[in-house]
Design brief:
The protein is α/β, with parallel strands linked by helices. The chain is 25% helix and 35% strand. It has eight helices and 21 strands. Strands 1, 2, 8, 9 and 13 form a five-stranded mixed beta sheet that branches. Strands 6-12-10-7-11 form a five-stranded mixed beta sheet. Helix 1 crosses helix 2 and helix 7 packs parallel to helix 8. The longest helix has 21 residues. The protein is globular, with a radius of gyration of 20 Å.
């Protein structure tokens, strides 16, 4: 609900401790039962020659490969909406009302689209230490395209199928009682500034891949490749406005699951009104060309200036040429007198140099 200009989001989290096949899709005693036949019908598409589902639980001797995305099952509990506005539900602003979350479950989409630029998940052994999805109860969607299908169409169909499956699972469990309700409530930048005039104003810049097939990010169903940097309310990020289309580099992608559980957003929100005033989230597209990198970096800093930011946290997606975006963005913020912290991955080679 929205009262005045305050946006309030409630995440009703139901804990999933196991996943099994069942005659009916439901959540019972912490177990997510999946009706395989019905679930496959939910995601069927004329461009798929074959659709199958697999289950993968923590500790099992299973490797999931080639992974395209991981999605937390969610659905709106109010307003008659599905989820992921711009994709599965009509275009309307995310971030308010009540959302059911199947906490501890994930939909994992798999399909070989381009070469070997795919992620993998080990559910046990040494590899399990390096992925959070070794600890989730995974419903794995495995599809094969019809012969000769264009790779862009294949990627788009698989992405939509994953979102549909995640929403279907959550919708089937709407009667489940939440184990926890997490509430996120914040007004406009002007309102919060008036409430907390003495707190440091902190902005978060979420640099997002926008470079073509398997290197994309979607906001409200739209590819951000042609976008300027823009401001989102933190609730929008936590409620399905941002969807991943970045499937390259196993160690280095922000899945859709990561977006709705963005740890920078959650940490800044926890400090909002205490020692910081959390202004919001800027989605900054990472282009492949220098002019695009300059544009995103300079316009992100300009947003910071207009919002009166005292400090900014910047996260990078990808490595290699996106390191240029990161350095430029930090440079322009610092030149504008805004204190800057970067959170980056390291791609320093096996020798550490």
């Amino acid at each position: 609900r929205e009262e005045g200009l305050v946006m309030r989001l409630e995440l009703h989290k139901v804990k999933v401790r196991d996943v099994r096949w069942g005659d009916v899709t439901k959540l019972e005693g912490g177990v997510l039962y999946v009706d395989k036949t019905t679930a496959i019908k939910e995601v069927a598409d004329e461009v798929f020659a074959n659709v199958d589902l697999e289950l993968a639980r923590p500790g099992e001797s299973i490797r999931i490969i080639p992974v395209k995305d991981c999605i937390e099952p969610r659905v709106k509990l109010s307003g008659g909406r599905d989820y992921f506005p711009g994709f599965l539900s009509p275009m309307q602003r995310a971030g308010s009302g009540a959302t059911l979350v199947l906490d501890g479950a994930a939909v994992v989409t798999c399909g070989s689209i381009v070469a070997f630029q795919e992620g993998f998940i080990d559910m046990s052994g040494e590899g399990a230490r390096y992925t959070p999805f070794s600890e989730t109860n995974n419903v794995v969607l495995v599809v094969e395209p019809i012969e000769g299908l264009d790779k862009h169409k294949y990627e788009a169909a698989l992405r939509i199928a994953g979102l549909k499956l995640a929403t279907y699972l959550a919708k089937a469990c709407m009667d489940s009682k939440a184990d926890e309700v997490a509430t996120f409530e914040k007004g406009t930048v002007a309102e919060e500034g008036a409430k907390f005039p003495d707190l440091l104003k902190i902005l978060y810049v979420c640099m997002s891949i926008a470079q073509g097939l398997l290197h994309d990010t979607y906001v409200y169903g739209t590819d951000v490749k042609s976008s300027f940097p823009f401001l989102l309310h933190p609730n929008e990020v936590l409620d399905g406005a941002v969807v991943s289309g970045n499937c390259v580099s196993a160690c280095d992608k922000n899945t859709t699951y990561h977006h709705v559980n963005n740890p920078v957003v959650c940490d800044l929100y926890a400090r909002h009104g205490k020692d910081v005033n959390f202004l919001g989230v800027v989605i900054s597209p990472e282009s492949t060309v220098l002019a695009g990198k300059e544009r995103s970096a300079s316009m992100s800093a300009a947003l910071g200036v207009e919002l009166g930011a005292d400090g900014v946290v910047i996260t990078e997606e990808g490595y290699g040429n996106p390191d240029t975006d990161l350095c430029l963005t930090a440079k322009y913020f610092e030149q504008a007198g805004i204190k800057t912290v970067v959170i980056s991955d390291e791609a320093s080679g096996t020798d550490g140099k």
